[in-house]
Amino acid sequence: MPDFTPEQLIEIESQLSHPTGEWGIEMGNRMNESNIPMTVNCFKALNLKPNDRVLELGHGNGGHISQLLKEAEHLKYSGIDISETMYLEALRINEEYLISNQVEFQLYDGVTIPYNTNTFSHVMTVNTIYFWSDFIGLLNEIYRCLKHGGVLAIAFGQKEYMKELPFVNDKFSLFDTVRIRKEVDTTNFKWVEILNYEDEVFSKADTPVNRKYSILQLRK
């Protein structure tokens, strides 16, 4: 098991919240690999149909997008991220889909979604809500961008699991089902379902952990 110094754990936390530089690229690769089970289950929670338009908040390096595009025919994917490093990696990894106009990426400020009202049929995000500076504000932005009847799927690690990770400190805001329900109830979203999962993975600090996570389905 790796023996990380406190300084290294702080850097891991910083890279998870906003990947930058060469280590950011490496962290993006690790996040994509360890998040795949959560990401695939998030795809499933969207119940995608042909010609749906999907927005993802926090696309990371975009290594999962080819898999998403197999969920239904003629999907259109848009990804937004606060990290320029991840934005550039996503452009590189998904070049063929950019050429065919199946995908697009934009940088954003983590507050305002750079799309018009009623644009998307579905929105998803995986392991990002811990870093949202204004949780309710961003939920309301997502609501604005969704079409009527549109679905939002949020994948997140449960607080009881997350708080035991050695790199989880001040940059993380942790959620359990009770807290996220309370927050969502202040918005116009309709609560559909919360799906609970458990698996064994290696954390971003290269330690084996029993991960407990949930996927929340909301509807406009």
- Quickly count the helices: 8
Helix content: 25-40%
Number of structural units classed as domains: 1
CATH class: Alpha Beta
CATH superfamily: Vaccinia Virus protein VP39
Shape: globular
Q: For the report, how would you describe the main beta sheet?
A: 7 strands, mixed
Percent in strands: 25-35%
Question: Rg from C-alpha positions?
Answer: 17 Å
Query: How do the strands line up in the largest sheet?
Result: 3-2-1-4-5-7-6
CATH architecture: 3-Layer(aba) Sandwich
The overall average pLDDT, rounded, is 93
What is the distance, rounded to the nearest whole angstrom, between the alpha carbons of the first and last residues?
45 Å
Low-confidence stretches: none
What does this molecule look like?
The protein has 8 helices and 7 strands, in the order H-H-E-H-E-H-H-E-E-H-E-H-H-E-E. It has 220 residues and is of the alpha/beta class. The chain has one domain (6-219): Vaccinia Virus protein VP39 (Rossmann fold, 3-Layer(aba) Sandwich). Strands 3-2-1-4-5-7-6 form a 7-stranded mixed sheet. A hairpin with a 5-residue loop joins strand 6 (190-202) and strand 7 (208-219). The radius of gyration is 17 Å and the shape is globular. The N and C termini lie far apart (45 Å). The relative contact order is 0.17.
